[in-house]
Specification:
The complex is a heterodimer of chains A (245) and B (291). Chain A has eleven helices and ten strands. Chain A is an alpha/beta fold. Chain A has two domains: 169 residues, Rossmann fold (3-Layer(aba) Sandwich), CATH 3.40.50; 70 residues, no CATH class. Chain A has a six-stranded mixed sheet with strand order 6-7-8-3-9-10, sandwiched between helices. A four-stranded antiparallel sheet of chain A has the order 2-1-4-5, with helices on one face. The longest helix of chain A is centred in the C-terminal third of the chain and has 18 residues. Chain B has twelve helices and two strands. Chain B is globular and about 55 Å long. The chains are: A alpha/beta (245), B mainly alpha (291). The structure holds adenosine-5'-triphosphate and magnesium ion.
Chain lengths: 245, 291
């Protein structure tokens, strides 16, 4: 779990961002960073601003203040659809597949960006070796998949873009316990076997800290606490607030 | 009996044309959630452009198809980039986009009055009066040609939407635009592209109409209503749904002639629309998502 970490700029460096929905402010000067090869988790209660943070990084929400840098380069001038070209991808909250397209089409479109388009066959093989079950579901409409299958498809779609940073938004939400473990296993494997850098939003703090190197606790749009997984697990206030112990 | 067959054949042939004009409207609605009232103006304008090309330059209407497709594609893209882009979408912004696109239609219609007067025009070629025999019934050749062109167009569109990366991306944007952005689709560009394709289909419908019917500046209004009915009947699920919707409308209209006094047949599409909206608000044949 120890990482070499600090050579070069962080893969993701969010600095003091503010995001509004209309008049309502969701993020109040939030900062966090993810080093190369790290798994970092962002935890917090409902409405704290976790999804907003990920969406701002993916380009789906525009910060009014602050900066987001990817591998040292500011994303503020990079258009939303161009960010995947740099190697950023998001597995969104609630999967957000294309329901009236089959699994294969969902996956193939995951490789839409120029950098990934030439490697569709290769990437598909990789996704199917990670999720053999998806292969049997190839021609099924994504909208008719079970929750667990949809999550695999969503992760598969994200991998099709050959990312360097993958962000997960509550990937275990609504899944049966056995599937929850599978999802965490997958994330762990992507990190340990393929060296992917991961930013993981979770409500399941115990599981998240098991696979994460570091974590941030977000509360009403600001980072309240940060530390290594060990430090957070030992923190009494966090234990009572998020683990109920 | 002979009459029934004759009406049936003419219904099928008409359904081809209905499908093309309805798909133009349905595609734009399916992707942008905007009811493009300017579709009526586009159909009318394309009829006049086809007529001009034929009467002034001697270009055969069928040979003018590529010109019409390109011209109206560009018109659609410009309309999107210049105006539609700034409108709120979906349920919340429905009224504003309706009003604005209705306004554009009015401008086009009045422009046509100024340029061409309100007189009926028709395109007459040397083969306009030819007819061929289908199942022993004599049918105007131009209607058959229109049908064939319509079917080819729909088949091409279907292949485009289901087989190409660009077509699949259009469907993806229709079903979930944010997920499109995440995988690298420039959603705004695909909105413009879709508006262009939908408008270009409207243009083709106008051209085809002009080869079989007379038209004037108010033409397009009835076609817009019929397109709407077909989309409601057939859903946005697929080209097949649209074709089925078009068949239902065309058959209902054709056979209404047998049982209704002629002044009532024009109301058939209205009645069909109301009945379907009340009984099966999801459409007769499936989804309201562009699949
Ligand atoms: N589309 C929106 N319009 C208006 N306000 C929004 C919108 N999306 C989120 N918000 C508000 O922004 C704040 C942060 O929301 P966000 O979705 O980022 O929270 P979250 O931490 O992901 O919560 P959850 O755990 O429930 O997913 C909340 O107060 C929420 O009500
Ligand atoms: Mg959330």
């Amino acid at each position: 779990m120890v990482n070499s970490g600090t050579q070069g700029p962080p893969v993701l460096d969010i600095e003091d961002i503010e995001v509004f929905y209309g008049d309502a402010q969701a993020l109040f000067g939030l900062s966090l960073n993810v080093q190369r090869g790290e798994v970092v988790t962002l935890v917090g209660s409902n409405g704290a601003g976790k999804t907003t943070t990920l969406r701002a990084t993916a380009g789906l929400q525009r910060p009014t203040k602050g900066d987001i840098r990817f591998e040292g380069k500011s994303l503020m001038k990079i258009r939303p659809h161009e960010r995947v070209e740099l190697g950023i991808t998001l597995v969104p909250e609630g999967r957000e597949l294309w329901p009236q397209m089959n699994v294969k089409e969902n996956l193939e479109l995951g490789a839409f960006c120029g950098r990934a388009r030439g490697h569709v066959a290769e990437s598909l093989d990789r996704v199917f070796s990670l999720f053999p079950h998806l292969k049997d579901r190839c021609n099924q409409m994504a909208g008719s998949l079970s929750g667990g299958e949809q999550q695999m498809c969503a992760i598969g779609r994200a991998l099709m873009s050959r990312p360097r940073l993958i962000m997960f938004d509550e990937p275990s939400l609504g899944l049966a316990p056995i599937l929850v473990s599978q999802v965490f296993d997958t994330i762990h494997r992507l990190h340990s076997e393929e060296g992917l850098t991961v930013l993981l939003v979770e409500q399941n703090l115990t599981k998240a800290l098991e696979i994460a190197d570091r974590g941030y606790v977000i509360e009403t749009g600001m980072i309240k606490t940060e530390g290594t997984s060990r430090q957070l697990l030992d923190d009494a206030s966090i234990r009572s607030a998020y683990l109920g112990i | 009996m002979e009459e029934v067959v004759r009406l049936g054949i003419s219904a099928v042939l008409l359904a081809g044309l209905y499908s093309v004009m309805a798909y133009g409207l349905g595609l734009i609605y399916g992707v942008l959630r905007i009811v493009n009232l300017a579709h009526a103006g586009v159909i009318m304008a394309a009829a006049y452009v086809t007529w001009l090309l034929h009467s002034r330059l001697g270009i055969d209407p069928y040979l003018a198809i590529p010109v019409i497709l390109v011209v109206f594609f560009i018109f659609g893209v410009l309309l999107y980039k210049g105006v539609v882009r700034f409108l709120p979408r979906g349920a919340a912004g429905g009224v504003q986009s309706l009003l604005l696109l209705f306004g554009i239609w009015l401008v086009m219609r009045n422009g046509a009055y100024l340029l061409f007067s309100g007189n009926d025009r028709a395109i007459r070629t040397e083969y306009s009066t030819h007819s061929i025999s289908i199942f022993g019934t004599s049918v105007a050749q131009s209607r058959v040609v229109v049908f064939v062109i319509a079917v080819l167009t729909l088949a091409a569109l279907h292949l485009f939407l289901t087989r190409t990366y660009t077509g699949k991306a259009i469907r993806a944007v229709a079903q979930n635009p944010d997920s499109g952005t995440i995988v690298g689709v420039n959603v705004e560009r695909f909105y413009a592209l879709t508006f262009g394709i939908g408008t270009s289909l409207g243009g083709l419908a106008g051209l085809l109409l002009a080869t079989i019917f007379a038209f004037n500046p108010t033409s397009g209004a009835v076609e817009l209503l019929k397109s709407f009915v077909v989309v409601v009947l057939g859903g946005l699920g697929s080209v097949v749904g649209i074709a089925l919707g078009a068949l239902v409308l065309a058959f209902a209209e054709s056979y209404a002639i047998l049982i209704l006094p002629s002044y009532l047949t024009a109301a058939v599409s209205f009645v069909l629309l109301v009945v379907v909206l009340v009984l099966r608000p999801g459409g007769l044949f499936g989804q309201r998502v562009l699949a």
